């Protein structure tokens, strides 16, 4: 099964992926990201730079609420000033777990704002649930056994060998592969300019030379790492076409 992926839209929008592009490397839940950027957009409407900078050290106080700290972080990230960036950088190093990823997003936004100003060009920031590395995005890809049968040891070796060979040719990185009874789940870093459909169709076709044991459909997402229940639910839907 193919799941529509944000990567296609990114490629259409950016063309050949300009050099002024930055990929968020941290794995951060999409809902948290949306919450952050919603609040960030709100605080920008009536922000006072001088007031934000004069209150920048309030972020280190212990007697302010989590919601207040989130708002302060968004305000600091919205101010084009090195002092604001340094404050966020310092806070991130000591931030508690319950607000660490929020602080991380604030620091990245502040960094992008400063870079855009210093370089006199707009910076493009790509953020997905699974993050990335350098100019590559991280994906969870699931190959399905044909006819819902178990993947045997020989077939596992075929998947490993064929996927590794094809991924290396395209400068992709296979970070992890796990096998379950009726599917294989891979975590892969893929360059922005690589055609996703081409990669996985090719891997499936090459594997199927050795017995047509993989379904022509596959699952792919960069929102989160799918658990077994989520994968089985997708497999059990009628949209999966099992053929002889």
Commentary on this structure:
The chain folds into two domains: 29-126, no CATH class; 132-235, Transposase IS200-like (Alpha-Beta Plaits, 2-Layer Sandwich), CATH 3.30.70. With 244 residues, it is α+β, with helices and mostly antiparallel strands. Helices cover 48% and strands 18% of the residues. The strands form two sheets. Strands 3, 4, 5, 6 and 7 form a five-stranded antiparallel beta sheet that branches. The chain is elongated and about 70 Å long. It contains nine helices and seven strands, in the order H-E-H-H-H-H-H-E-E-E-H-E-E-H-E-H.
Task: Please give the structural blueprint.
Elements: H1 6-14, E1 21-23, H2 30-44, H3 49-54, H4 66-77, H5 82-94, H6 97-119, E2 124-126, E3 132-133, E4 136-145, H7 153-169, E5 173-180, E6 183-191, H8 196-208, E7 214-221, H9 228-235
Parallel strand pairs: 1-2
Antiparallel strand pairs: 3-4, 4-6, 4-7, 5-6
Question: What would CATH call the architecture of the largest domain?
Answer: 2-Layer Sandwich
Spans of at least 5 consecutive residues with low confidence: 1-5
Global structural class = alpha+beta
Average pLDDT score: 87
Considering the chains and any ligands shown, give keywords for the structure.
48% helix; 9 helices; 7 strands; disordered N terminus; 5-stranded antiparallel β-sheet; elongated
Structure summary:
The chain is an alpha+beta fold and 244 residues long.
């Amino acid at each position: 099964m193919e799941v529509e992926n944000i990567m296609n839209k990114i490629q259409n929008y950016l063309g050949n992926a300009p050099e002024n592009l930055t990929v968020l490397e941290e794995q951060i839940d999409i809902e948290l990201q949306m919450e952050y950027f919603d609040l960030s957009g709100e605080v920008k409407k009536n922000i006072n730079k001088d007031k934000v900078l004069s209150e920048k050290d309030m972020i280190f106080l212990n007697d302010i609420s989590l919601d207040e700290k989130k708002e302060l972080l968004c305000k600091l990230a919205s101010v084009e000033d090195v002092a604001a960036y340094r404050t966020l950088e310092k806070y991130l190093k000591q931030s508690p777990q319950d607000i660490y990823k929020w602080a991380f997003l604030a620091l990245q936004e502040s960094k992008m704002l400063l870079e855009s100003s210093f370089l006199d060009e707009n910076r493009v920031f790509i953020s997905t649930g699974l993050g990335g590395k350098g100019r590559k995005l991280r994906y969870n890809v699931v190959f399905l056994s044909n006819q819902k049968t178990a993947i045997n040891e020989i077939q596992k070796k075929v998947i490993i060998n064929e996927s590794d060979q094809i991924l290396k040719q395209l400068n992709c990185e296979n970070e992890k592969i796990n096998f379950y009874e009726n599917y294989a789940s891979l975590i892969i870093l893929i360059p922005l300019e690589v055609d996703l459909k081409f990669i996985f169709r090719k891997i499936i076709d090459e594997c199927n030379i050795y017995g047509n044991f993989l379904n022509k459909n596959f699952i792919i997402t960069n929102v989160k790492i799918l658990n077994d229940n989520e994968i089985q639910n997708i497999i059990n839907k009628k949209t999966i076409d099992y053929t002889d």
